[in-house]
TrEMBL record:
Its EC number is 2.7.7.7. Transmembrane segments: none annotated. It is an enzyme of class 2 (transferase). It comes from Meloidogyne enterolobii (Root-knot nematode worm). GO terms for biological process: DNA replication. It catalyses: DNA(n) + a 2'-deoxyribonucleoside 5'-triphosphate = DNA(n+1) + diphosphate. Gene3D superfamilies: Ribonuclease H-like superfamily/Ribonuclease H. This is DNA-directed DNA polymerase.
C-alpha cells in the first residue's frame, strides 16, 4: 500500500469530525475532547505506540457516529509519529480501553489498509449496541485508544517449531533452603555441578554420621582435602575439561550417572539424578537414570549455581514423590495409583512397593490383605495402616476406610467408585447428579469496604485519598457496626471502625483514624497486611473494584513481594486472594453481587445515608491542595453525562457554582460517604439475603436441618453464585438434577482415534470380519483393567492401534524424557503399553 501524502488531506480532529457529522460548520469541540496523549518508542524492535485519551462531550443520541473520525485521526497520527522516529510502518494494531468494558476492544496486527479503521469501528459499534440494551453507554467517561505501529522487516528472525499442545503455565512453589547442602566451590573454579553431585552421592551411599559428613564437606580434620580430591577424580574419569567457565548439566550428568551405575555401584545401587530449578516447579528441569533406580540424587540449580539436596529431602518443605512429581502430607494419604507406593503398608519411595519374598506369607484378618514381605507386614501394623486401608474379598479392591465411611456411608460397595466430578461414590454407568449443599459453619470474618480517589495530572492512576470502614457479623447482629470502636472494643474489627489514608490533612470529616502519607496506597496495603488483628479472614469490598480499585491495589501488593491468587475473566477481576500467616485477605467486587451504580444503592436499599454527591474528578490535582477553587462543568465530566443526569447536574451546578471548593476537605467528605453507602448496602443486602434463604426444620428439600440463612458476603462473589447456592441448599433434592456429560449422553464409553476407526473399517471390509470396537453395542472388549481397541470374536484376537503421539512411538520420540501432550513422558507411555501387552 502506498502511504498517502501528509499534504494530501487535513488531519485535524475538527476536519474529520465535521465530515463525520455531515456539517462542516458545527464546532467539533462540542463533541470531542482529547484529554491525554503520550508516545512510547522501542528503537530495537522498530515499534511505536501512541496513547490517546478522549472524552465525547454532550453525549448525542448516536455517539458511535463520531468514532470513525477519531480512529482515522489516531491511525494517521500514529503513522506520522512513527515516521518522525525514522520507522516506516507496515503493520498496525489498535486497542480501545474503557472502564465500562469487560474486555478491551482490539484489532490484532495486520497490514495497514483502508479496512483497519472499519474493523475497529464495527467491533466498537457491536459492543456499544449491546450496552444500549442495558441503558448504558460506553462514552459516559474517558476512553483510551492505543495504536501500535511496527516495521516487521526490522524484527529479529527466529525459528518457531510447532506440533505439541500448549504447555500449562508453570506453578512456582517455595523452596526450603534448609534442605540444601551449601558450600562455596572449594577449588575456586566453576565446578559446582560436580561438587554438588559428589556431595549428594557420598551422603546417600556412605551413610556417615552427620559430624563426619560435615567435616568432609568443609575439609576439616581427617577429611581435609578429600572432597576436592574426589571431585577432581570424577572430572578426570569422565573426561571433562578442568577450566571451563560453565558446565551444562544435561551434557555431563548422563556420563556421570552411567559411570556410577556401570562401574562404581555395580550390584550395590542404581542411581538416578534429578535437577530442580530456581522457579520452584514441582517437576524437575532435567532427570537422568534407569527407571528401576533405588538411589535418587537431587540437585538444586539457582542463580547459575548447583546445590546438593540433603538425603532427607523436603526441598519444597513437604514430602515429595519423585514418581508422581508432586508433594504429599503423609504416606497414608498419597495417591493410591502411584507406582512408587506400597498399597499394603503405605510407604512411598523408589524402593517401593515392597518386593515379594518366596519364604514369607501372611494373611491379615483385620485388613484382609495378603503379605509376601515380613517388613511390609510389620510396618503396616506399626503405623496403624491396617485400620485405614482394607481389601475387599469379593472384588479385590483396596479401599480407604475414612473416605468410605464419611457422610453416612457405611463402607466399600463393590460396584461403586469415587467420582471426582460430583464428589460422591456411585456406579460409573449411572452418571452424576448435582449435590445439594449443606450450610457452612459460621466462622468469624472481617468485612472491609474501601474506596480510593486518584489524581488526574498523569495518565497513571495514583491514589491520593483512600477511605475504609470495618465491620464483622457480631457487630452487625448487635447493632454496633456504625459506632466508633474508641468506646466499643471488638477483637475482630480491631481498633478503628473508620480509617483514612491521605496526602493532606482534613478537619471537617470525622473518622476514627487519619493516616497522612505521601503514598496513601502504600500505607493502605501495609495496614491490611500488618495493621489488622491476625485472627480471622478479611473480605475487602470495593464497588466496580474489579476494573479499578482492585487493579490499582494489586500493583502495590506485588511491590510488597506478595503474589496473590486471582480469579478474572478478560480485564475484569472477580476475586484476589493473598494469605498472610494463617488467614486470607480476599478482595471482591460488590458490583458482581449488586449490579448497579453506587449512587443507585441508596434508593435500592432505602439506606439512611447521604446521597452520592457530584464531584469534580478532573480537579483532583496536587496544585489544588490548600486553596479555594471554583470547578468548571468540565471538571465534573458533565459532557459525558446522560441527558437526564445532565439536567439534574445543571440545576445543582447553578446553585453551587459560586461556592468555594476545598479539595482537601471535599476528598474526605466524598470518599468516606462512598464507603458509608457501600458498607450500608452490603449489610442491608446481607440481612435481606439471609432472611430470604433461612429455613426451619424440615423446610429444605434434601435435609431436615434448620439453618439461619446464607451469608452472601462470605460464601459468594457474584449474584449468580449466590442464587445457585440458595437453590442447592434449600430447593435441590438428592439425585434430582443430573450433570450432563461434556459430550452429551449419547457418547461412547471410551475414546478412540479417527485413525483407528478408519483402520477397522478397512480391515473388516478387506478380511470380511466383524470387529468389536467403541462403536459396537457392547463397547470395547475388556481384558483385565484394560480395553482393546478392536476385537475379532470369530478368531479370538485383539487389535491395538497406537498413535505415535499418544503412545510415545520410539521412532518418532526416541528420548524417554520427552514430555508428550498428555503430560507424561514417552518412556512412561511405552512402559504402560508394555504392561498391557504382557497382560
Amino acid at each position: 500500500m502506498q502511504p498517502v501524502s501528509k499534504r494530501a488531506r487535513q488531519f485535524s480532529i475538527d476536519y474529520l469530525l465535521a465530515n463525520q457529522q455531515g456539517n462542516g460548520n458545527e464546532n467539533s469541540d462540542r463533541y470531542v475532547e482529547r484529554i491525554g496523549n503520550s508516545l512510547w518508542h522501542n528503537a530495537k524492535f522498530n515499534i511505536v505506540k501512541t496513547y490517546s485519551k478522549f472524552l465525547i462531550k454532550d453525549v448525542p443520541n448516536d455517539p458511535e457516529s463520531l468514532l470513525s473520525g477519531i480512529f482515522n485521526y489516531c491511525v494517521d497520527d500514529a503513522i506520522e509519529r512513527s515516521r518522525e522516529k525514522g520507522i516506516e510502518p507496515d503493520q498496525l494494531a489498535c486497542t480501545l480501553n474503557s472502564d465500562f468494558l469487560d474486555y478491551d476492544i482490539w484489532v490484532p496486527f495486520s497490514d495497514i489498509t483502508n479496512n483497519t479503521v472499519d474493523a475497529m469501528l464495527n467491533r466498537c459499534q457491536h459492543i456499544a449496541q449491546s450496552k444500549k440494551q442495558d441503558e448504558t453507554t460506553l462514552w459516559g467517561s474517558p476512553f483510551k485508544i492505543t495504536i501500535t505501529t511496527i516495521n516487521r522487516k526490522g524484527l529479529p528472525k527466529r525459528r518457531i517449531v510447532g506440533g505439541a499442545a500448549r504447555k500449562p503455565a508453570k506453578i512456582r512453589h517455595q523452596i526450603n533452603h534448609a534442605s540444601l547442602i551449601k558450600f562455596a566451590n572449594p577449588d575456586n573454579r566453576n565446578h559446582c555441578l560436580f561438587f554438588s553431585l559428589i556431595a549428594a552421592f557420598v551422603q546417600n551411599i556412605c551413610n556417615w554420621p552427620g559430624w563426619k559428613f560435615f567435616d568432609y564437606i568443609n575439609s576439616r580434620y581427617g577429611m581435609a582435602g578429600r572432597f576436592v580430591k574426589d571431585t577432581h577424580e570424577l572430572i578426570n574419569l569422565i573426561g571433562a575439561p578442568m577450566n571451563l567457565n560453565e558446565y551444562d548439566a544435561e551434557e555431563w550428568i548422563p556420563t556421570i550417572v552411567d559411570h556410577w551405575n556401570n562401574i562404581i555401584c555395580v550390584n550395590q545401587c542404581r542411581v538416578k539424578v534429578f535437577v530442580f530449578g530456581e522457579e520452584g516447579n514441582y517437576k524437575p528441569k532435567f532427570k537422568y537414570g534407569p527407571s528401576d533406580y533405588d538411589t535418587p540424587i537431587i540437585i538444586y540449580h539457582n542463580n547459575n549455581h548447583f546445590y546438593a539436596v540433603k538425603k532427607s529431602g523436603n526441598l519444597f518443605g513437604k514430602l515429595y514423590c519423585l514418581s508422581c512429581e508432586s508433594v504429599y502430607t503423609r504416606a497414608q494419604h498419597h495417591s493410591i495409583t502411584c507406582i512408587a507406593r506400597c498399597k499394603n503398608c503405605s510407604r512411598v519411595g523408589p524402593t517401593y512397593p515392597c518386593k515379594s519374598s518366596n519364604t514369607f506369607f501372611k494373611y491379615c484378618n483385620t485388613c484382609y490383605k495378603n503379605f509376601h514381605n515380613n517388613d511390609c507386614y510389620r510396618h503396616h501394623l506399626l503405623v496403624g495402616f491396617c485400620n485405614r486401608s482394607k481389601k475387599c474379598n469379593v472384588c479385590g479392591v483396596i479401599w480407604n476406610v475414612s473416605a468410605n465411611t464419611r457422610n453416612g456411608r457405611e463402607g466399600h460397595i463393590c460396584s461403586e467408585k469415587f467420582c471426582n466430578t460430583c464428589g460422591d461414590f456411585h456406579e460409573p454407568k449411572r452418571g452424576c447428579f448435582i449435590k445439594p449443599l449443606d450450610p457452612k459453619e459460621r466462622d468469624s470474618y472481617r468485612i472491609i469496604a474501601f474506596d480510593l480517589e486518584t489524581m488526574q495530572q498523569t495518565t497513571v492512576h495514583e491514589p491520593n485519598f483512600i477511605s475504609a470502614k470495618i465491620s464483622c457479623p457480631d457487630c452487625i447482629i448487635n447493632g454496633k457496626w456504625q459506632q466508633s470502636l474508641h468506646t466499643n472494643n471488638c477483637n475482630i474489627c480491631g481498633q478503628h471502625r473508620t480509617i483514612t489514608f491521605s496526602q493532606q490533612p482534613f478537619n471537617n470529616t470525622i473518622v476514627d483514624k487519619k493516616i497522612v502519607n505521601e503514598s496513601p496506597l502504600a500505607a493502605f496495603v501495609d495496614w491490611l497486611i500488618n495493621g489488622l488483628p491476625q485472627n480471622c479472614d478479611s473480605i475487602v469490598f470495593s464497588h466496580f473494584g474489579g476494573r479499578f480499585d482492585m487493579v490499582i491495589t494489586l500493583k502495590e501488593i506485588v511491590k510488597n513481594g506478595i503474589k496473590p491468587e486471582m480469579l478474572k475473566k478478560g480485564n475484569k477481576m472477580f476475586e484476589m486472594k493473598m494469605k498472610i500467616n494463617k488467614y486470607n485477605i480476599i478482595f471482591r467486587d460488590t458490583f458482581n453481587i449488586m449490579p448497579m451504580p453506587l449512587a443507585s444503592l441508596v434508593s435500592a436499599f432505602d439506606l439512611e445515608v447521604e446521597d452520592k454527591p457530584f464531584f469534580p474528578h478532573m480537579a483532583n490535582r496536587p496544585e489544588n491542595y490548600g486553596k479555594a477553587i471554583f470547578p468548571t462543568k468540565e471538571d465534573y465530566l458533565a459532557q459525558g453525562m446522560m441527558p437526564e443526569k445532565r439536567k439534574h447536574f445543571d440545576q445543582w451546578y447553578e446553585q453551587q457554582r459560586n461556592v468555594p471548593f476545598f479539595l482537601d476537605e471535599a476528598l474526605a467528605s466524598y470518599c468516606t460517604n462512598d464507603v458509608e453507602i457501600l458498607m450500608s448496602a452490603l449489610i442491608s443486602f446481607r440481612k435481606e439475603f439471609m432472611n430470604v434463604t433461612k429455613r426451619g426444620a424440615c423446610e429444605r428439600a434434601s435435609s431436615t436441618k434448620a439453618h439461619d440463612g446464607i451469608d452472601v458476603l462470605r460464601e459468594s462473589m457474584t449474584i449468580a453464585s449466590a442464587c445457585m447456592r440458595h437453590f442447592r441448599t434449600n430447593h435441590l433434592k438428592e439425585d434430582h438434577l443430573a450433570l450432563v456429560p461434556e459430550r452429551g449422553y449419547d457418547t461412547l464409553n471410551g475414546n478412540q482415534s479417527l485413525l483407528a476407526l478408519k483402520f477397522f473399517n478397512w480391515y473388516a471390509e478387506k478380511f470380511n470380519v466383524e470387529i468389536r470396537n467403541v462403536h459396537s453395542e457392547e463397547g470395547e472388549k475388556s481384558v483385565g483393567n484394560y480395553q482393546l481397541d478392536g476385537w475379532v470374536e470369530e478368531e479370538q484376537y485383539g487389535i491395538e492401534v497406537n498413535g505415535c503421539v499418544w503412545h510415545g512411538c520410539p521412532v518418532c520420540f526416541p528420548n524417554e524424557n520427552t514430555i508428550m501432550p498428555s503430560g507424561k513422558t514417552a518412556g512412561y507411555l511405552r512402559e504402560h503399553d508394555k504392561k498391557r501387552y504382557n497382560l
